[in-house]
Amino acid sequence: MEFRRKDLLGIADLAPEEIRLILDTAASLKEISARPIKKVPTLRGKTVVTVFYEPSTRTRMSFEIAAKRLSADTLNLTVAASSAVKGETLSDTAHNLEAMQPDLLVIRHPASGAPHYLASRLKCGVINAGDGLHEHPTQALLDLLTVQEAKGTLAGLKVAIIGDIAHSRVARSDIQAFIKMGSKVTVAGPATMLPPYLDSLGAEVTCSLEEAVAGADVIMMLRLQLERMNQMYLSTLREYSNHFGLALRHLALAQDDVIIMHPGPLNRGVEISPEVADGKHSVILEQVTNGVAVRMALLYLLIGGEKG
Amino acid sequence: MSLLIKGGLVVDPAQGLEEIRDLLIQGDKIAALEPPGTIPGQGRRVVEAKGLVVAPGLIDMHVHLREPGEEYKETILTGTRAAVQGGFTAVAAMPNTRPVNDTASVTRYILEQAKAAGLARVYPVGAISMGSAGRNLSEYGDQKAAGAVALSDDGHPVTNPMLMRRALEYARTFGLLIISHCEDLDLRGDGAMHEGRVSLELGLQGIPAAVEEIMVFRDLALIQLTGGRLHLAHVSAFGSVALIRQAKAAGLTVTAETAPHYFHLTEEAVKGYDTNAKVNPPLRTAADVAAIREGLKDGTLDAIACDHAPHTTLEKDLEFEAAAFGLIGLETSLGLSLKLVHDGVLTLTQLVAKMSTNPARILGVPGGTLSVGAPADVTIIDLNREWVVDVNTFASKSRNCPFNGWTLKGKAVMTIVGGKVVWQG
Q: What is the three-class DSSP state of B371?
């Protein structure tokens, strides 16, 4: 099949076949990163701009490495050093960037819907690298690839996603992505962090970590944003960790070959114990490796080949 | 230890039972409940209960035991002594102690003191927010593990609706009940009694019924939003009863209690500036009393709890506006509530449900029934004994009771907790 899109804005509007194509492409591009000379000429002459209005280590570097391995030129706009601090609107910044004729804009923004706003106004492609509480589609795709590699399939797996679902764009993308690919998703967290209508996404919902991880093939822990404590979402970190932190004792409840995932950065000792994060079930670093492959695939599918 | 209670009228709403039965207690459990004369008495302590009512131990789900911190008003020992003397085998202790019961360690302390006292069971209620300060959630999971049966803001109502929303959600996470003290503090202002004709006459600042009704409405809207479990404390107003009735009809997960002073006293009791009639929520009008009675009768109000709030002369022997809110009730609650039975407002079964079965169910604690295997918590009641309330005979350390001198009909004559006779009179 062909990938006929200008932008990659969210999992919500992707068809399962498109997701399959992205994963297959990523799997085939993965070996480039293992070569002694990690570069192919595929995107030579293309320009990819990353615009990050929020801090990021993994995602921004991952996009940059992906672009460079495909020989695209990259430049990064970090907001602290940009005109945004002088009051320029998002739309003006984007149109000015576009006037320099990039092929693709990769944007992270604290406002849900900001990438969609740009995509509807710009001729170049837009990739959503995380918008507000809404979506983080490339994270979900790299998560799918990681599970696919570990389990050989996505269909029929039990995936548990634990933590602050309410404020997690990773959760919103992952729930939809796994369900589209035929997995069963259970989400768990304190009820303060489980927004109403979650079941309308097709997920099972529980307040019990134990219940969520029982029989799970995949356990995805979400980062707890520490400022939530002062926003009345939880009592203390100590209590959160006692009830919603993944510890070794929980692994016995899951499948023997359960894999443990986390989008990073970790709060060690809060949502995940060091023994679990570094243990033999953890695929947290594989997720990072696969992030490069998935982003290479998206760059290729959006601006590579004949479409470019 | 084996105890046979013979020939009493066993009233157990949980089993739909109101019949003459013999009740056998073995150890700390109900061992048998049989037709009269069928359980042999040899080798057993036998209690003749002919003409008496044998009820599952009464549970008062709303008391202030003042310990830790205000032991000059009441201690867990004196408070539970007052409880068993009044026929109560268990009480739920509100968290507005000093320090506030917002942590597992305070809950454990209360349970240790209750165990040492060896009288009534005490079920600690934890605080909704840390220090009851209305800012951060306390550790609900930890408190539950230590023995807290519910969470409440009693005495320090949650004004911030966001905190109340989060509290209902966080409590649901751990399967805990939220007990709400419904009072809009801003609207109460400096009010000292019900806002009505009497406050006008006495020149006292008023507390309108809306102070309660606004928060009842808020909390009902919040359980609709969150699916949390809510119990409304000390309902006093006509409008509140109507709101709760409507919410229950709509299927919301709400229960509610009222106190004997809200179905026996009106604002008139404040005349003469009697500070023992200064209570929060305040004594209201005859129409409110009628609505409370109707709410009890039709099941809108699930429980009777006395809101036992001991204060000494230091807090009460003052000009009315300066006096503390609160009155004591553990030793009068049963007698005052039985008046509803004698007056034909409630059946005996309904009364026992509201003072035992329902509180046990709402709090999720054992007891509230005399079924075989249940804890041997039993209250034996003489429905017809007339007695005069005399605060000087109270086991409570405090004397702030507006019913002093009243003649009541009906009294607990034996209180049994865990198979042990803890009071007899």
A: coil
Structure tokens at B49: 């209960």
CB A7 within 8 A of CB A125: yes
What Å distances lie between residue A208 and A247, A255, B116, B262, CA to CA?
14, 17, 35, 41
Q: Which residues of B touch A232 (CB under 8 A)?
A: 135-137, 162-163, 166
CA distance B43 to B214: 59
Reported as a pLDDT band with limits 50, 70 and 90, residue A308 is very low
Preceding omega of B281 cis (within 30 degrees of 0): yes
Pairing of strands B2-12, B17-26: antiparallel
- What is the distance between the alpha carbons of residues A101 and A92, in angstroms, rounded to a whole number? 15
By Cβ distance, the residue of B137, B172, B226 closest to A232 is B137
Query: What is the Cα B216 distance to its own chain's centre?
Result: 19
Walk along chain B (425 residues) in steps of 10 and give the mean pLDDT of each run.
Answer: 95 98 98 96 95 98 98 98 98 98 98 98 98 96 98 93 97 97 97 97 97 98 95 98 98 97 98 98 98 98 98 97 98 98 98 98 98 98 98 98 98 98 96
- The count of residues in chain B is 425
Phi-psi region of A305 (alpha: psi -120 to 50; beta: other; left: phi over 0): left
Q: Which site among A167, A192, A208 would you substitute to test the B interface, given the most B Cβ atoms closer than 10 Å to its Cβ?
A: A192
In the three-class reduction of DSSP (H, G, I as helix; E, B as strand; rest coil), residue B152 is classed as strand
The rounded distance, in Å, linking the Cα atoms of B173 and A188 is 10
Residue A237 touches partner B, C-beta closer than 8 Å:
no
Name the one residue in this structure whose structure tokens are 């605080």.
B127
The Cα B348–Cα B361 span in angstroms is 18
Nearest C-alpha of chain A: how many angstroms from B35? 46
C-alpha span between B127 and B110 (Å, rounded): 14
pLDDT number for residue A83: 64
| pTM to 2 decimal places | 0.93
Largest CA distance in chain B: 67
A109 catalytic? Reply is no
The Cα of B140 is separated from the nearest Cα of chain A by a number of Å equal to: 8
Closest CA to B60 of B259, B231, B230, B212: B259
Please name which of B69, B22, B71, B80 lies closest in space to residue B47, comparing C-alpha atoms: B22
For B261, phi then psi, to 5°, come to -65, -20
Longest dimension (CA), chain A: 56
